[in-house]
Structures are given as structure tokens and as C-alpha cells.
Write a structure and sequence with these properties.
2 domains; 3-stranded antiparallel β-sheet; TIM Barrel; 16 strands; 14 helices; Enolase-like, domain 1
Length: about 375
């Protein structure tokens, strides 16, 4: 068996463009799908896939580890979100081929079940860009928390921490308290609430926000500072007892190792679209397991990535909970078919072979690439802010 072609399809999904990778083989009808979505760098990732494809065309797609090593090592400059995302999409597609060739669901090809179902957490409002980024009132938080609860979710992530300067006064802290209180009162104690700081804050402000949020018992605090600010995260960890989560912008075992050795977070959040795909994420998960750190993979992306994450969650011993987008666009299931339903905030093991999802090319063509651009935030004095 040989790889004959590696191609990409770009599908615009409002906030981001999904980058779907397809690997074809010389076996009639046997191909694999993966996802390499990177917000605001779509064309770069498509170009990266095209650049590395010749390295493994003609090789056996079932030699997954060797193909992974070739794509990772042979370009000489290793790492970075664009190169790692290209590798991630290709790797997922190779695993899809492997499972299809075996005639089994991906989770079976990965070694079989470590659990019976996958617990999911909802985004407040289901993940639409308006709900996630433009709903910062107590009323909106309460309404959307009720919606998640009524749908059966037992965990919800919120953005209760506003844009903040390196140091702020009482107003921003009170605003965070108002939003968190509304979410907790609407959800009740039976709902686990994660708070995503989105790397918006300095260590000093992260500590103060954590003090405000602590009475409402957050499940974990995500990306309390920018990921490259390792020493700042250590300062936050020294002062905060709430579990911390990070890792969506770390791409390799080597990236994770110093954080794990210093114990600055309890929850690792690698992204299967950026961290080397299935092969890379399993390496990271095993390393985290050795340090007693659990996995809550980052996944605000497309349906292929969600399906891959579900299969990984089913086979990963130190898995905790899975992020899911359910309402970012209303036509999700029209474009990507075969994704299982969410039942009481969980997904059961898929029964279809491979990843279990297919692309409806006719529907996908209705949502072509659009130039995406990141949100641009500025502080009150005009200086640049992280969003």
C-alpha cells in the first residue's frame, strides 16, 4: 500500500476556517481524513501541508510512526504551530487509514477502551462567536448556563475574566465576580465551571481574579497567563489553590516537560490539531501521566478534530474531560457527516470504522475560504492587549 496524494479542503466556519487534510492511497476507496485548523493562519497551514507532502508520498501509510518522524524531522526547522499543525492533520489521516484498513473504529485500532463514554464540556452558548466573545452580562451568562444545563451538560466553560491591563482596580474584579456569580447561580453546584483567562492577564491580575472567583469553586482556571510566560505561571501557582490548566499553545513533549517538572498545572490541554496529531498527543499524554497530570484536550475547532478527540479520550487512561463546539455554525452536521449525538453531556464509543466521519463535498463547497483575521484588542491608552 502506498500514499498517492495529500490534499486539503478549506471550509469557512465563521470564526475560523477548518482545514481538512485528506490522504489518498493506491487501494481503491481507501483514504483518511484529518484536521489541521489554525486560527488566522489558514493559508500558511495549507502551504505547509503542500510542502511536506512529497516527503511521504509513495510511502506506506501504515508506517505511521516513521511517517511522523519524517515529516517532523526532515524539514530541519522543527516545531511551530504551522508546521506542527500540518503534521497533525496528516497524522490523523494516516490513523484513519490504519483503522479503516483493519475494519474497526479508531479507538479499537488505538488499543481499545479505557472508559465507556466521554464526558464533554460545553462552551457558554455552544461556541458561537457572539456567545463566546460578545456576551458579557450577568443576564446572558445565566440564560446560556440554563441552556447548557437543559441540554444535559454537567460542565461548562466561560470567559468571565475581561480584558485587563497589567494592573487594574476594583471595577474589572467586580465584573468578573458578577459574571461568575450569575453562572454559578444558574448552573447550581452540580455543574462544573471552567474559567478561561485566555492569557489576557498578568500574573498579578491573575492572582487577584483567582481570589475573586475562588468562592464559586471553579473546576479549573485555563491559561491564566500567556504560555511563554513560564515564570509568571509559577508565581500564579504559588498563590492560587484552584487547579490550573494550560497547554493549547504547547506543541511537543519538550514544550510540556518544564511545566510538568515544576508542577504549575494539574490539567494539560494539548490540541490534536497542533500537537502532532494522534501520535504526538499520545506521547504528551503518556508524559503527563507520569507526572500525575490529567488531560482535557483543547478543541474549539471542526468536527473531524472533535471525532479524533473522542477516540483518543476513549483510550487515554489519564483523560479528564473533552472540550466541544456544538453551535459555532448551524450546518456542522450537513458538511461533516457521521458524527455521533451528544447524550446527557457525553458521547458513546463510535461504531463506524476509522474516525467515523465523512465530508459532504457539495455542502462544504457552500462555505469556501474567507480571509480570517484575529480580534484586535487595545488597552484604554491604545497599547496592544492580548485577547
Amino acid at each position: 500500500m502506498k500514499i498517492t496524494k495529500i490534499s486539503t479542503t478549506v471550509i469557512n466556519a465563521d470564526l475560523r476556517n477548518w482545514v481538512i487534510v485528506r490522504v489518498d492511497t493506491d487501494e481503491p476507496g481507501l483514504y483518511g481524513l484529518g484536521e489541521a485548523t489554525v486560527e488566522f493562519q489558514t493559508e500558511a497551514v495549507v502551504g505547509a501541508v503542500k510542502s511536506v507532502a512529497p516527503l511521504i508520498i509513495g510511502r506506506n501509510p501504515l508506517d505511521i510512526e516513521r511517517n511522523w518522524q519524517i515529516v517532523y524531522r526532515h524539514p530541519f526547522f522543527k516545531g511551530g504551530v504551522v508546521s506542527m499543525s500540518a503534521l497533525s492533520g496528516i497524522d490523523q489521516a494516516l490513523w484513519d487509514i490504519h483503522a479503516k484498513n483493519m475494519g474497526v473504529p479508531l479507538w479499537r485500532a488505538l488499543g481499545g477502551l479505557a472508559r465507556d463514554r466521554v464526558r464533554l464540556y460545553d462552551h457558554l452558548g455552544g461556541g458561537s462567536s457572539v456567545a463566546v466573545y460578545d456576551s458579557d452580562t450577568a443576564k446572558s451568562f445565566a440564560e446560556k448556563m440554563h441552556e447548557s444545563k437543559e441540554m444535559g451538560f454537567t460542565a461548562v466553560k466561560i470567559l468571565a475574566v475581561p480584558q485587563a491591563a497589567p494592573l487594574e482596580g476594583a471595577a474589572k474584579l467586580k465584573h468578573a465576580d458578577t459574571l461568575m456569580r450569575a453562572a454559578r447561580e444558574a448552573g447550581g453546584d452540580e455543574i462544573d465551571i471552567m474559567v478561561d483567562f485566555h492569557g489576557r492577564t498578568s500574573a498579578a491580575m491573575a492572582i487577584q481574579f483567582a481570589e475573586v472567583l475562588a468562592p464559586y469553586k471553579p473546576f479549573f482556571l485555563e491559561e491564566v497567563v500567556q504560555p511563554e510566560q513560564y515564570e509568571a505561571m509559577k508565581r500564579v501557582k504559588e498563590k492560587v489553590s484552584i487547579p490550573l490548566a494550560a497547554g493549547e499553545r504547547l506543541y511537543t513533549q519538550q514544550d510540556f516537560l518544564p511545566f510538568l517538572k515544576s508542577g504549575v498545572f494539574e490539567v494539560a490541554q494539548p490540541d490534536v490539531c497542533h500537537a502532532g496529531g494522534i501520535t504526538g498527543l499520545r506521547k504528551i499524554a503518556a508524559l503527563c501521566d507520569a507526572f500525575g497530570v490529567v488531560m482535557a484536550p483543547h478543541n474549539p475547532l471542526g468536527p473531524i478534530a472533535t471525532m479524533v478527540n473522542v477516540h483518543l479520550a476513549l483510550v487515554t487512561p489519564n483523560f479528564l474531560i473533552q472540550e466541544v463546539m456544538r453551535a459555532d455554525v448551524p450546518w456542522r452536521k450537513d458538511v461533516v457527516q457521521g458524527t455521533p449525538d451528544i447524550v446527557a453531556g457525553h458521547i458513546l464509543p463510535p461504531t463506524s470504522i476509522g474516525i467515523g466521519a465523512t465530508i459532504n463535498d457539495e455542502e462544504a463547497a457552500k462555505h469556501p475560504f474567507k480571509q480570517d483575521a484575529p480580534a484586535q484588542w487595545f488597552h484604554s491608552d491604545g497599547s496592544v492587549a492580548d485577547w
